[in-house]
Amino acid sequence: MTLLTVVKDVCATVGVQVPSTVFGGIANNRTMQEMLSLANEMAQRIAYDTRDWTTMRNAVTFTGDGVQTAFNLPAEYKRMLLTGNVRKTSSPNMPLLFIPDYDQWIERRLSNTTDARGEWIITDEIMTVWPALGVGESVMFPYIRRNPIRLAGGGNGEAFMSDDDRFRLDERLLKLGMIWQWKAQKGSPYAEDMGSYSDALANAMGHDGPAPILIGRRPVSHHERVAYPWPVPT
Predict the structure, then answer these.
(1) Which letter does DSSP use for residue 55 in this model?
(2) How far apart are CA 144 and CA 130, in angstroms?
(3) What residues contact 1, with CB distance under 8 A and at least 6 apart?
(4) Exposed/middle/buried for 30, CB within 10 Å: 0-12, 13-18, 19+?
């Protein structure tokens, strides 16, 4: 569904005039201004705040030259994955140590203290890796993209720019989220609508990944745990 289709459905549900356009004449249309603002907020909320959606994931590689320590993050970078690590090609099983506090980072640099695995920090859209990567040595890490909108004119963006733009995730989620949030903002009863949105969100999250492997001794990932490590009786 396009943005216009979503907004039409939302308007029909919340009881405001169904538009023929969102952007046409929007400067003089308070309702469409609010609908556009809500669509952008809800799209970003779903894309960034609820889950590390597979659609929004990407990875980047920085390659060293023996000197450089600071690398510009990708233009579409939003945040690290909740379970993301920075790993070196020379020791992929030992992720670099993340230093969350900038004061601690400065202290460690001035005291010439460095973890054997290497360290990293993000400041001002720059990732700094210490010590400098060797020539040809690389680090790789996953991240969440900041562009949840597929633009009708091509490419992806952070916000809707035309009636024909589309949400890159489940557009029904966008519609249901807009409905309950609109009602909440207008002081109307919204508990049932929020419940419908929450159910749809939980269902979408549950289907946004492969099913777990139940039989076997080895977990499918570092985040899985074996509850019964022996073959299942048949």
Answers:
(1) G
(2) 23
(3) 9, 166, 167, 171, 175
(4) exposed
Residue 130 domain boundaries: 54-145
Percent of the chain exceeding pLDDT 90 equals 85
Give the pLDDT band (50/70/90) at residue 231: low
**Rounded distance, CA 125 to CA 122, Å?**
7
Would you say residue 229 lies in a domain?
no
Q: What is the three-class DSSP state of 119?
A: strand
23, 37 contact by CB (below 8 A): no
Amino acid, res. 201: L
Both 36 and 59 in a single domain? no
- Contact status, residue 66 vs residue 133, Cβ threshold 8 Å: yes
| Tens-digit pLDDT profile for residues 117-157 | 999 999 999 999 999 999 999 999 999 999 999 999 999 99
